[in-house]
Amino acid sequence: MKTLKYLLVTMLLLGVCSLTHSQKLSLGIFPEPQEVTISSQTYTPPHGYTLRGINNPDADAVKLLKEALPFAKSGKSLPLEIKKLKDKTPEMQRSGAYTLAITKKGITIGIVDDNSLFYAAQTLKQLAKYDEGKKILPLCSIKDYPDVLFRGTVEGFYGQPWSHADRIEQIRFYGRIKLNTYLYGPKDDPYHSSPNWRKPYPAEEAEHIKELAKEAAHNKVNFVWAIHPGQDIQWDQADSMNILSKFEKMYDLGVRSFAVFFDDISGEGARPEKQAGLLNYIHKEFISKKNDVQPLIMCPTEYNRSWAKTDYLDILGTQLDPAIQIMWTGDRVVADITKEGVEWVNNRIRRPAYIWWNFPVSDYCQDHLLMGAAYGLDTQAAGTMTGFVSNPMEYAEASKVAIFGVGMYTWNIKNYDPTQAWKDACDFIMPEASMAFRIFCEHNCDPGPNGHQYRREESANYVAPIQTFLTGYKKNTFPEQSANLLGTLFAQITASPSMIYSQSPNKRLIEQINPWLIQFEFLGKAGTSALHMAHAWYEKDRSYTWQRYLETSALLDSMKLINRTLNQKAQPKGVKVGSKVLHPFIVDLYRQTGRNLLSTDGIAPDEVKVSIPSIFTNIDQLKSQPCAEGDNTVGYVPLFEVVKVQPNQYLGIGWEIQKEAESFCFNLPKSNQPGRVFEWSADGKSWSLIPHVSTENAKDTICAIDPKARYIRMRNNSDQQMELYVLGFTATTKQDPQINEALMMYDMNLDTYKNLNPGEIIHIKCDDINAVSFFLSGSNENLVSITGLSQDGEKNIVYQGNVGYIKLNKTMFEDFSSLEITTIGKEPIHIHQIVRE
């Protein structure tokens, strides 16, 4: 197998590719302009440039121009003319619209406002390059404008808010990619929400707000400060004045954009007519009286389509001043954004929606990073929305990958390519190790099963090769093309974290993703080991297969340890990587190989009943459903579609022989009908009814489970088809205090074992067996001795040597009535399984 060479080859490839993509990055303009013509000719200015045209151009933009271009201090110069745009088409009169022409005679920039000049300067910085120490420029003509007026992020997630330094860096990043909105609304800021929204910020926090507003102004970003009063607001003049007073204090700190949030509340604060009255009052008494503030933004209580069951939105649409902007998350709390969905809400609220996109926010899946492409955004939706902000992760630097995509989409909707934007984002954010970073991001995309029913593509290019490999492997073949592809991938995964650590200067990003980088390296090592294990089995080398099985087991155990020890303040706790495709593949391959090892001439691998946490069913629809496994839980991953259960079909779960069930929970909507029975079994063969489970309940928790149970199932005991949903089917287990450790040698679970201590002897009777296999592990310094005992007490050594896989055929012990197993050394050895044939 070629995977032994993968690591070195991959590291070389990563290094070469990193350089290649860095070179590609220097040619890009981000976001892609609406209209651009670039000549193949480049131009080296013979002189520096001198500003001409409008008086007092924006100082921040001029600073960028001087960073991008040589400027003349005296003598001959080329003109850099800045003038007002004469194009009166609506799109070219938007804030930020500009034209840029680079010729050998000079540069001309046409602008609407200061934002226009700032964005033109950013484009020039991306176009200008160095060649042998000299600036070179492409001869080009650009006409550019944003499709969405307000573009950026809303810090609106639950959990740890961004640090002040994170926010400053985010604002600078937005300026570089022409985003113009940062909406400040951390759920855990008590001065933004209850209980202290009426109170002024303490001095230190107020100074931070002032610094953020100042930095935002330098980068042409609207710093929007949001208040969230709905949990305890009183609909009276006093609280109306409290909000005006708070806004006035924020205005004094430099804030020029404001929002009021009424999301995630209920009761009195959710009344739409009261909200509209308050917002109209704020608009009239504060917003309209300031000449330098942006339109007021509000987040409604019914902020997505699945919750819009009343006339709430219609009341806002008719009663709210047309100048006030209304936020919207889509068809659900977490959802793709479609033109149809936006037009639906626009008709209700009687204005273009201000989109609050809940991606890449991960407050519902904090054991995952969402580093994938920003897709699911309708490229036909231009003109349907006035604003679009992304709700990011609590990890500000890691969120830049998705935010970059949002920047590309909102500027040029019709030409948006999410995959290309994702690749460009990886290059832009980590040019020093772009391919390593891209590999990391590609396999950290999906949030896992979640209540929002929102899943993302992950490892998409490897789904088919994995299926091909597993299908072939289960038929005792070794699909080499798929194996080589996967072997290369796992070598790249193994190498990527160290390349990111050593090559990227972005220490804050590394700090934020570090638990996942650690886990990612183990994922790569586990995948490589698993492929070696599978190849050894294909080569019919059980001894080497067992060695690689133990190595893979140790690596998977290390991943479990990381999951139990890092990121433990999260909900859910832990660190998941490659969780949608790659990690399940490794586990599947590992378990299939375990069944292969335990198979005999009389028992095929698919007939081996392994004592591990698992799901089992005879319902085709559920056979590919993943198992949700924790340290002491096993169950089905929720399936949000109707499951058809024919008579005598079942869905079940099983767990380790050394554990007993502490409780069993089910949530099976529409299953509460006659004929539904729950059963338990000790061996998976003989079944007993679990009593006192009412057929009236579709959801319940059962604590009185027989301690001998190792399997539970729900079976259709009627003569009619059942249709139900599987939203929950989970057992919580605990260690069985009565378990005999010796059973671990015969539990058909290679992950468990009995310790064989020095001086201890284990006896095996030789009656009616044709062969016996031992699966052993332990220190290389320890030896194992297997001695045969005859009927008259005579002893002879049958095997003495290293621990590992040992198989004794009948000819080796046919003269003996029993075998004795002992260890030679000071440390115990582990007996994982004894298989008698």
From TrEMBL:
Which residues are in the GH84 domain? 149-414
State its Enzyme Commission number(s).
3.2.1.169
Enzyme superclass (EC): hydrolase
- Look up keyword NADP and say if it applies: no
Q: Which GO terms describe its biological process?
A: carbohydrate derivative metabolic process; carbohydrate metabolic process
Signal peptide per UniProt: 1-22
Please give the InterPro entries that the UniProt record associates with this protein: BT_4395-like_hel, GH, Glyco_hydro_b, Glycosyl_Hydrolase_84, Hex-like_dom2, HEX_bac_N, O-GlcNAcase_cat
User: Does the keyword field hold Signal?
Assistant: yes
What are the protein's UniProt keywords? Glycosidase, Hydrolase, Signal
Report the active site residues. 264
Tell me the PROSITE patterns matching this sequence: GH84
Q: Which GO terms describe its molecular function?
A: [protein]-3-O-(N-acetyl-D-glucosaminyl)-L-serine/L-threonine O-N-acetyl-alpha-D-glucosaminase activity; hexosaminidase activity
Could you say which protein family the record assigns here? Answer: Belongs to the glycosyl hydrolase 84 family.
Indicate what this protein is called per its UniProt record.
O-GlcNAcase
> Taxonomically, what lineage is the organism?
Bacteria, Pseudomonadati, Bacteroidota, Bacteroidia, Bacteroidales
